[in-house]
Amino acid sequence: MQLKEKIAIVTGAASGIGEAISKAFAREGAFVCMTDIDVENGTRIEKWIREQGHSAIFIEADAANTNDTEKVFAEVKNRHGDRLDILVNNVGMAFKATIVELTEEQWDRQVAVNMKSVYLYSHRAIPLMIKNGGGSVINTGSVTSLVGVPDFAAYVGTKCGMLGLTRAMALDHAKDNVRVNIVCPSGVRTALMDWQFSIAQDPQEEIRRVVDLHPIGRMADPEEVAELYVFLASEKGSYFTGTAFPMDGGYTAK
Q: Could you read off the pLDDT of 177-216 as tens digits, one per residue?
């Protein structure tokens, strides 16, 4: 059990990659605090993890909301004291729009969910990690942290911003034994990806187009992506910090 007795927080945990990470961490022995605004799925995942004999709680929380963030950390402290070993800033969202088409409200919400949430949780988590000798912060970026794509201006902008923030945090806290890395998936069959397909003019053709972008010839499953997070959270990943991991089936190799 690679994460035995570790304390972890995973944002955006109620579906997709976040769900897979939460289950994988719990399987590896961590106590997992899952946060999301999706109460139905969040409680379902908590129940499933507990039925497997592992430890987890779900807390309804908007990751971009300061008061909700305080609520999450208060609950973790109530259960485990001033301790946190792993933070996964996984929550994310996307609006399909160019910079001209985006409304100000859409821009603000995109920045809040994808960027402010990283600040809010890392701002609280890293001092706890330092106090207890170190820890691992893993940010969920995107292949668009590394390359641009059309029609998702705010999404690409915020995911690129996450990459820069990851590197800055890694440099600032390497001396504290706090490692900060970013995983940059491309095509992963998540609810967000399925939504992007659903709004296409021809969803099936869009699926084929996305698959063809990957030299490996398929999209990833959330469960195989989660294994990289387990590695980065564990002692096996102890030499990595400030690193972007393009889990992209060869997308950025072209």
A: 999 999 999 989 987 788 778 988 899 999 999 999 999 9
Whether the CB-CB separation of 22 and 91 falls below 8 Å is answered with no
Residue 179, SS3 per DSSP: strand
Nearest to 210 by CA among 194, 230, 234, 231: 194
What is the spatial distance between Cα 74 and Cα 61, in angstroms, rounded to a whole number?
Answer: 12
**pTM score, whole prediction:** 0.95
Alpha-carbon gap, residue 247 to 74, rounded angstroms: 34
Alpha helix (H) ranges present in the chain? 16-27, 39-51, 66-80, 104-111, 117-131, 153-173, 191-198, 203-212, 222-233
Sign of CA dihedral 143, 14, 238, 163: positive
In this structure, what token pair is assigned to residue 182? 């970013």
Length of the chain (residues): 254
Which residues of the chain register pLDDT less than 50?
none
Calculate the CA 152 to chain-centre distance: 19
- The one catalytic residue in 121, 155, 229, 251 is 155
Active site residue 155: yes
